[in-house]
Amino acid sequence: MLQYGFMQRALLAGTLIGIIAPSIGLFLVLRRLSLIADTLAHVALAGVALGLLAGWHPALGALLVAMAGAVGVERLRVRGRLFGEAALAIFLSGGLALAVVLIGLGGGFRLDLFAYLFGAITAVQPRDLWVISGLGLGVLGAVALFYKELFAITFDEETARVQGVPVDALNLLVALLVAVTVVVAMRVVGVLLTGALIVVPAVTALRIGRSFRAALALAVAASLVAVLAGMTAAFYLDLPAGGAIVLAAIALFALAAPFARI
Amino acid sequence: MTTSDDWPKVSTAGADREVAALEDVSYDAGDVRVLERVSLRIAAGDFLGIIGPNGSGKTTLLRVLLGLLPPSAGRALLFGTDVRQFRQWARVGYVPQRSVVEPRFPASVFEVVMSGCSPRTGLLRRYGPAERAAVLQALETVGMAAVRDRRIGVLSPGQQQRVFIARALVHRPELLILDEPTVGVDVEAQEQFYTLLRRLNREGGVTLVLVSHDISVVAQEVTRLACLNRTLVFHGDPDEAIRSGALERLYRSASLVVTHHH
Predict the structure, then answer these.
(1) Who contacts A18 (Cβ-Cβ below 8 Å, separation ≥6)?
(2) What predicted TM-score, i.e. pTM, was given to this entire model?
């Protein structure tokens, strides 16, 4: 399968996605913010529809709308006036509703949209690869740069504050990084399943890891195995890539059960 | 527990130097006044115990002092600076209530203590050999070096508490603030714990502020005592608190409050 140009691009993009999605996902799961990934994915879908309607690159529309959504979600969460995940529920359904309305207005781009919903290995154009690489390396760089602060606020936010860590700014950064990750992943995995790739390998790693570093490495490993197995299956069996990848990730989660320490 | 001979003494030049203070602080949680015009001065070298019945505002007082809660009136000072402008967090160590730990969190003891290096290392800089040495030394000080690679959640409450003290000590604070540190810790571990605090205070010159509802033990250990029940009922020498009947009044008025509410 490696002789096909589209497959080389898809595997390259998939590898990058396989590394960044669980890297940000581990922080989300440990802070009980797993739903943020799914929420911003739905918000990003409204951005895709907006991009298609306005004639921009859909990734640009998705990026702008998802980042605006990230800022909105984080502000509602910090103010804490709504009950727990109610703020996320509003953004999630609001994003989907807006996407549906914009799709209705557009009328003619239903086929294009299907690939964004469920992911497609044939979808990564040479131009997309540059966007995916740029954004993906940006996310990876940000996580590496703020690793020690992200660990501190994830383990114990209040003490991190007393250590002078800029907690509010970093919380906003995490939300923005999730938005970017969603946009990077949606081409291959699809909007509806991106949240799963961010969350599931991280949860698998939590079953086994005894230190944070080990959990992070395990999450990335689990995610890469799922992405490569899923894409291979998608190529040979002509399956939607997103579905195959997420099912592979869930299979790994089940396989980790005998090694689970919790 | 090993000795802290290798623990460099914090300079106590100008022994009456003010380390922290509350000036006429009130705090309202909604319609409920939790703190009423509390003024408190903590001098370098003090070992101050803050005691009071449940709901007397002890934890709120600490949170205001650390800048985690904005007071409704008055102000908090750390090392002479209003806490809202205070940035020298390396001078302050904080040991929160142990209940903040998620037992399934994948962090090794070493990683937890390492996160305490943050105030000295600063943003955008990685931890290096100097930090690793400081972590090992802090773990030696609290007698936890042998378990440095274990996951924090599998330790006993007393051991977890010592790890948190190591995290607060690793950046060599002049002021150490502890919130209910002995809750859930068995008697033998409590004795070791107070021995450690005494050493830090007398040999290391670290100023200590300890909040507890455990009056009898605290009154024996500390050099200054503050009795809190929304207002500051007493502030001074622990023996004087017992002689003057302040302790008795503190808990009699507390039980009156309780019966009043029923």
Answers:
(1) A197, A220, A223, A224, A226, A227, A228
(2) 0.88
